[in-house]
Amino acid sequence: MKRNRKLRRAGFTLVELLLVITILGILGTVVVMNFGDVGGDARKEATRQSIAAIDSAVTVYNVKVGKMPKDLKDLTVGINEDDQGLLKSADLNDAWGNPLEYKVDGRKYTIRSAGPDGQMNTEDDITN
Known about the structure:
With 128 residues, the protein is mostly helical.
């Protein structure tokens, strides 16, 4: 008889298990709500770094060639016959897979990503 009582007390009751599952569900929801946009922040930072790399490549191109590139594709082609491009074609897209926009006006230029919404000239655009 004593043995049966010990066996019954060794496990959790169904109510205790349901309570634990409910608490874990609530905690999981809170974590997702608070940290759910971490991937979005990482993409924004990756896009900022890509724009900075392209900005540097534009500067190198300007020094080597003596003029600004007409478009970003100029950075993917070798400057000399034995030279490789400064960037790969894949480097010309933002972290969402959209092409970066490059506008040049004399010596001034902008490199722009449409940002998370994929639309240019909105609040979430990322520029150099």
